[in-house]
Every structure is written in structure tokens, then in C-alpha cells.
Amino acid sequence: MGYAQFVVGPAGSGKSTYCSNLYRHCVTLGRSIHIVDLDPAAENFDYPVAMHIRELISLDDVMEELGLGPKGGHIYCMEHLEENLDERLTEELDNYLEDDYLVFDSPGQIELFSHLHMLCNFVEQLKRENVNFFCVHLLDSQFITDVTNFVSGCMASLSAMVQLELPHVNIHTKIDLVTNKRDIGNYLDPPEPRPLLLEMNEWMAPRFKKLNKSLIELVDQYSMVSFIPLTKESSIQYVMGPTTMTHKAC
User: Fold this and answer.
1) CATH superfamily of 3-190+225-245
2) What are the structural domain ranges in the chain?
3) What is the DSSP string of 54-76?
4) Is 102 exposed, middle or buried, given 0-12, 13-18 or 19+ CB atoms closer than 10 A?
5) How many CB atoms lie within 10 A of CB 15?
6) Cα dihedral angle (1, 43, 159, 157), rounded to 10 degrees?
7) Which candidate, 36, 39, 13, 10, places its Cα nearest to that of 23?
8) Distance of alpha carbon 7 from its chain centroid, rounded?
9) Which residue of 7, 68, 174, 246 could cross-link 72, Cys pair, CB 3.0 to 4.6 Å?
10) In the prediction, which pLDDT does 185 show?
11) Does pLDDT of 115 surpass 90?
């Protein structure tokens, strides 16, 4: 089996739009792509879906029959997926060629890929089918225009990296909606830690200075801060490139 992306990110970060752009890019290249949707609440797509979790279980049914809320319902659906998709998934993967490109679009509940085990176990199951995975973590660039949101985004991405244990690429989405591009430019490449710390201390109360220092040191010392702005076809080509399989970024 060839390569696969596991697309994660908060609700509204642009995962469906990203998958749509990725699909059109692969079609233009003449490359076979299969998108698997793991969101039990999603219904409408502007690209073909190879497999959909709603064929197995839907969020609406779970909420109605079990009386669960949206978050509890998503967790139940992921647990059900983990327990019941073995045979169907193996059969589907056997139909794909070695150079087919797979994309798994995940739900937007951050806890599903930050500290709960279901999607991690799902990825491990796919690895046993010789699928070469990497994670694409999307962040809405409109919310990464100051240091506090930037560090929060880094921590969320690091949490997903630790939980999923996959090569990891971060992408800023919705760049075209940012009114002042210079606001986000400071957070694309690994920034200098001292200005970040000074800015954090300006935003936060004095009692958080030690915490701010620890967070900035974590971001800086592990050299995992790197964001790719999704602005043109070359960005998608970079994410699909073989270098992403060994590139880890937060």
C-alpha cells in the first residue's frame, strides 16, 4: 500500500475544503485518490467519498437513540468505528493499488486526536495493513495572529503528534481571509524565542511568567514550530511530497 494522510484539526479549521482541494489536485495530476470520511455528522461533500463512517453509524442516530450530546455522540461513534470496521476496511484497502493515495478526514472534536485513544488505535490498525501514514494538522490562520493563540495552536498540535505518533505537518488555512498578512507572518517560520516570551508576558498576568517561559522553551528547544500557509498549488504538492514522511513539525 502507498501513502495516506490523516487530516485533523479543530471544527471550522477547513478540513473539508482542504480535502476538496487535495482531490482536485490529484485529479489534475492523474493520480488516483480515495477519501475516507470519519465524521459521523458530515453529510454533504463536493468530492467523491470512498468510504463514510455514516454507512456504519451516524451521529444523529446515536444522539436520538442514546440521548447523548454532540461530543458524547462523537466519542461513541469513534468507539463503534474502532470495534467494528476491521473486516470492511481490510476488504476496501485490498481493492486499492500500491500508488493510490488515501486521505482520512477526521471529525473536528479536538479531544478525539489530542488525548482519547480511538483514532490512535484506528491509525495503528491501518499501519498493520502497510499504510504509510502522516498527519496533516490544520489551524485557521485567522486565530493565529497573536502569540497566545500561536502557542495554544502549537500545544494542540504537539498533543496530536504525541497521541498519534505520526510524522506531522502543520498547515495554516484560510490565509485569504486574514486582513493583515504581516500579523501571521511572524508565526510561519520558527520565530526567535525571546521576542515570543516578551510578547507573552505582555499579554498575560505577571503570575504566568514562569509558565510562559516553560511554554516558549518547549516550543523552541524541540524545534518543532513550522507552519505551511495553504495559499497555492505548490503548498499541496509539498504536503503530498515524500519529504513530508520524515518531516515533523509543530
Assistant:
1) P-loop containing nucleotide triphosphate hydrolases (3.40.50.300)
2) 3-190+225-245, 191-224
3) GGT--HHHHHHHH---HHHHHHH
4) buried
5) 25
6) 90
7) 36
8) 4
9) 68
10) 67
11) no
Can you tell me the distance from the alpha carbon of 119 to that of 126, in angstroms, rounded to the nearest whole number? Answer: 11
Looking up cell 463514510 gives 52
Residue-wise pLDDT for 231-245, tens only, equals 666 677 777 764 444
pLDDT at residue 210 greater than cutoff 70: yes
Q: Give the tens place of pLDDT for each residue, 54-109.
A: 888 899 999 999 999 988 999 999 888 888 766 666 677 777 766 788 899 998 88
Tally the C-alpha atoms within 13 A of residue 104's C-alpha that lie toward its C-beta.
21
**Alpha carbon distances (Å) from 82 to 103, 117, 125, 171, 225:** 18, 10, 9, 27, 31
Look at the alpha carbons of 144, 145, 148, 151 in this order and tell me if their dihedral is positive or negative: positive
